[in-house]
Design brief:
Blueprint: H1 3-35, H2 40-45, H3 58-64, H4 71-102, H5 108-117, H6 123-137, H7 144-150, H8 156-167, H9 171-179, H10 184-195, H11 197-212, H12 216-221, H13 230-239, H14 246-266, H15 268-276
Helix pairs in contact: 1-14, 3-14, 4-7, 4-8, 4-11, 9-10, 11-15, 13-14
């Protein structure tokens, strides 16, 4: 067997292995979609992917919901929460990361160490003080506990990602822009931000997916049904009646996860490039 033939067989085997692994990884999503058309008996009574009987109105009935509010309201509420949170997270994290990466100021090392130390704090240790603070401010049952902290760069993980990216950009670009008459803020806007699209997309995708799927913080701070997000709406649909129509729950789960999947695939190029250039490579 020639070297070229062995190389071709090796590549073919590698591609087959990738296809098999890829199918294993996306099989839960395939099962979720197919099961959204099944009856309760087929979902729990058989392990087969396909069923004998299908229900074609599960998406329509699931979208209407079981009470005064449907999933159109829950999706709109989620967008009201997620979009400002993502935008403010990006804006505040960029400014803080730019300051750490490009400037020298008193207590810089101490402040950077304190910021990184917050990464070690489990969420459970700060949830009670945060709840008391937001209660005293009158922010409970609103989206302010999510939106306002995002505007003050409270995510050390995103700041660290952007710092690593900014440090990888040559300082000669800053000096050239300053010679052309730019101040520090214009250097950020006109020079660094256009080059930082991969890192910014990575921050946006992470924050969008985490906030969209957040159930723990949502159930802590949001109490009225009219303000429920998609994750809370799915949980409520399980308690709406004694007999749960699981095809409707799965149908709304498909629609709930679809925005995250679409966002990831449309921005996949920038996401992969941003991760590979911010010091987070494996």
């Amino acid at each position: 067997m020639t070297m070229a033939r062995r190389g071709a067989l090796g590549r073919a085997g590698f591609y087959v292995l990738l296809i098999v692994l890829g199918f294993i990884m996306i099989y839960p999503l395939i099962w979720l979609f197919v099961s959204s058309f099944k009856t309760n008996e087929d979902i729990f009574g058989s392990s087969k992917l396909f069923a004998h009987t299908y229900v074609w109105n599960s998406y329509q009935l699931g979208w209407k919901g079981n009470g005064q509010y449907g999933f159109s309201d829950f999706f709109l509420n989620t967008l009201k929460l997620v979009v400002p949170t993502v935008v403010l997270t990006i804006a505040s994290s960029v400014l803080v990361a730019y300051g750490f990466a490009r400037f020298r100021f008193p207590l810089q090392t101490l402040l950077f160490s304190l910021m990184m130390a917050t990464l070690m704090l489990p969420e459970s240790t700060i949830i009670i003080p945060r709840y008391i603070l937001f209660r005293n401010l009158g922010w409970l049952d609103s989206y302010l506990p999510f939106i306002v902290p995002a505007g003050f760069a409270t995510s050390a993980f995103f700041i660290y990602m952007l710092i690593q990216f900014f440090r990888g950009l040559p300082r000669d670009l800053d000096e050239a822009a300053i010679i052309d008459g730019c101040n520090s803020f214009m250097v950020l806007i006109r020079v660094l931000l256009p080059l930082s699209k991969p890192a910014i997309f990575s921050v946006g995708i992470f924050q969008f997916i985490w906030t969209w799927n957040d159930f723990f913080n949502s159930i802590i701070y949001i109490s009225s049904v009219k303000n429920f997000t998609v994750s809370l709406g799915l949980r409520m649909s399980l308690d709406a009646s004694s007999v749960v129509s699981w095809n409707q729950v799965l149908a709304m789960s498909v629609t709930g996860v679809l925005p995250c999947i679409l966002l990831f695939f449309f921005a996949q190029k920038y996401f992969v490039e941003g991760i590979s250039t911010t010091g987070l490579k494996g």
